[in-house]
Amino acid sequence: GAVVSQHPSRVICKSGTSVKIECRSLDFQATTMFWYRQFPKQSLMLMATSNEGSKATYEQGVEKDKFLINHASLTLSTLTVTSAHPEDSSFYICSARPGTSGSVNEQFFGPGTRLTVL
Amino acid sequence: ILNVEQSPQSLHVQEGDSTNFTCSFPSSNFYALHWYRWETAKSPEALFVMTLNGDEKKKGRISATLNTKEGYSYLYIKGSQPEDSATYLCAFGVWDSSYKLIFGSGTRLLVRP
User: Fold this and answer.
1) pLDDT confidence of residue A100
2) What pLDDT is stored for residue A105 in this prediction?
3) In angstroms, what separates the C-alpha of A43 from chain B's closest C-alpha?
4) Which of A100, B9, B11, B58 has a 20 to 30 A CA-CA distance from B37?
5) Residues A56-62: contacts with CB within 8 Å, 24+ apart?
6) Cα(A14)–Cα(B57) distance, rounded to whole angstroms?
7) pLDDT tens digits, residue range B43-61?
8) For B1, which residue in chain A has the nearest alpha carbon?
9) C-alpha distances in Å from residue B107, one per residue of A32, B38, B89, B90
10) Is A43's Cβ below 8 Å from some Cβ in B?
């Protein structure tokens, strides 16, 4: 089946530091990857859509300078939380969609990253 | 703002009980409705993608129905087992600049042995 890995699974950092999270599709190529954030007892909220070789598309209210997304290859997208603050503490999860961006293909999810900013 | 609601928020049942939960979504501009199963410390796993009004899909003891006119989908689990314990998410598919999923907050199911 389609497997997506995410690294690290858990990170604790000091306020003001930057944290990079990797999302990899292990057995398929993903032209499109998605980054979500989940606060306690809330839904998965889409932050941005990452397209291989082009700029990410951010959802309303998500600061693109704060959450840097790079999708340099068909199997890897990274999310960097720059100058993290305690309010950025959350669960971040990625998904990857095989096939063309114009088709309704299933999204395959990574296991998520728990970020805690002290 | 598109709203996807799931109920109940959590459910505790005894092994062998059958159970069902609801996902409500906007009834206009429907494209697809997705169901996922999410076990703790694992990746969400796709269960169903439903596109047609009246659709009914089945996977083992789990089945789902879809009513796009009134904007709801039911997920049923027949004869729940402890391994069914997970959070069940539904997501409403929308076309924006690309195809995106709007998630409900999930139903957490705990099946007691």
Assistant:
1) 56
2) 63
3) 4
4) A100
5) A57/B97, A57/B98
6) 47
7) 999 999 999 999 999 999 9
8) A60
9) 28, 10, 7, 9
10) yes
Contact check, Cβ <8 Å, B36/A106: no
Amino acid (one-letter) located at A103: S
Residue A93 has pLDDT above 60, yes or no: yes
| Nearest-angstrom CA–CA distance, B91 and A65 | 28
Residue A98 touches partner B, C-beta closer than 8 Å = no
- What does the DSSP 8-state code read for residue A81? E
Model confidence at A102: pLDDT above 50 = no
Asked if A61 has any chain B CB less than 8 Å from its own CB, the reply is: no
pLDDT values of chain B reduced to their tens digit, one per residue, 113 residues = 678 999 999 999 999 999 999 999 998 888 899 999 999 999 999 999 999 999 999 999 999 999 999 999 999 999 999 999 999 999 999 887 788 899 999 999 999 99
Strands in A1-118 per DSSP E: 4-7, 10-13, 19-25, 32-38, 45-51, 57-58, 67-73, 76-81, 90-97, 108-109, 113-117
Position B88 scores a pLDDT of: 98
Q: Is the pLDDT of residue A27 over 80?
A: yes
- Please judge whether B103 and A45 are an interchain contact, meaning their C-beta atoms are less than 8 angstroms apart: yes
* 8 A C-beta contact, residue B20 and residue B74: yes
Q: Which two tokens stand for residue A65?
A: 């300078």
